[in-house]
């Protein structure tokens, strides 16, 4: 089974080499696609240098503008389908998602269509996030569950394994949201299509190096985006 981990990056020069090495140190054979939005800090140059060492396992796609993590993932998903990958993962570059959990997500996906590395399926498993961010994320998940009726605890999770049929059927060109909203939209569309979604508990750790790209615009988009998704599903225009 061909497995691809997609890592979106914007200014991750402090993390990118370590995260790539950590994935390739795993016993199972994962390939990586880094989708970089022309980071001014030269993240892509570090990846190019590493490609000499990891040759055909490490792929890089550079986009010309910073256009949000959602668009970067859609780009990566299309590439993965074209390259015939069977299992496609989403993972952040900043070690908030522990690469050692990838095999656990993969194993769970052998009995599901989509697996979510979940912070909130058993209590709250978040380490070193400022209290404000924990509360925001936790209640955002509740809000989404309530409005959309999604039976998922961590609706904004960004540590995910998709089997290829989910990405084939979901209609990637219909996915409109770019920030956290993107994570919600992917889960909602998969749920509406009737795919089997499983949550496995993971521990999410705040980044140590580099800076978060979270901002108010992303929250705004997600709040309105959720209402818009609800509306579209009510009028059957999803
Ligand atoms: N390609 C791309 N990657 C992004 C963009 N925004 C964030 N990322 C990456 O997405 C991941 C999660 O972003 P992060 O800033 O850690 O968000 P936070 O964990 O919610 O604070 C990291 O790997 C970022 O480098 C973007 O606009 N384009
Ligand atoms: Mg982060």
UniProtKB/TrEMBL annotation:
GO MF annotations in UniProt: dolichyl-phosphate beta-D-mannosyltransferase activity; undecaprenyl-phosphate mannosyltransferase activity
Transferase is among the record's keywords: yes
The enzyme's E.C. designation: 2.4.1.54
SUPFAM superfamilies named in the record: Nucleotide-diphospho-sugar transferases (SSF53448)
Chain coiled-coil ranges: none
Domain Glycosyltransferase 2-like: 5-171
Keywords: Glycosyltransferase, Transferase
PANTHER family: DOLICHOL-PHOSPHATE MANNOSYLTRANSFERASE SUBUNIT 1
Family statement drawn from the similarity comment of this UniProt entry: Belongs to the glycosyltransferase 2 family.
Name by which UniProt lists this protein: Undecaprenyl-phosphate mannosyltransferase
Species of origin: Chryseobacterium potabilaquae
Taxonomic lineage from the root: Bacteria, Pseudomonadati, Bacteroidota, Flavobacteriia, Flavobacteriales
């Amino acid at each position: 089974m061909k497995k691809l981990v997609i890592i979106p990056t914007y200014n991750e020069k402090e993390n990118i080499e370590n995260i790539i090495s950590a994935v390739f140190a795993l016993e199972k054979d994962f390939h990586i696609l880094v989708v970089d939005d022309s980071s001014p800090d030269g993240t892509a140059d570090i990846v190019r240098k590493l490609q000499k060492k990891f040759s055909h396992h490490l792929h890089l796609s550079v986009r010309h503008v910073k256009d949000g993590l959602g668009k970067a993932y859609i780009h990566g998903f299309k590439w993965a389908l074209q390259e015939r990958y069977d299992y496609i993962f989403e993972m952040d570059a900043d070690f908030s998602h522990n690469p050692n959990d990838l095999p656990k997500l993969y194993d769970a996906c052998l009995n599901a269509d989509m697996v979510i590395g979940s912070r909130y399926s058993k209590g709250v498993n978040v380490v070193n996030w400022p209290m404000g961010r924990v509360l925001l994320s936790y209640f955002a998940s509740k809000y989404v569950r309530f409005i959309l009726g999604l039976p998922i605890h961590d609706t904004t999770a960004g540590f995910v394994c998709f089997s290829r049929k989910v990405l084939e059927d979901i209609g990637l060109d219909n996915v409109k949201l770019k920030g956290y909203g993107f994570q919600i939209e992917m889960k909602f569309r998969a749920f509406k299509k009737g795919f089997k979604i499983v949550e496995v508990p993971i521990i999410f750790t705040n980044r140590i190096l580099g800076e978060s790209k979270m901002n108010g615009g992303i929250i705004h988009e997600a709040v309105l985006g959720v209402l818009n998704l609800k509306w579209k599903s009510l009028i059957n225009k999803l």
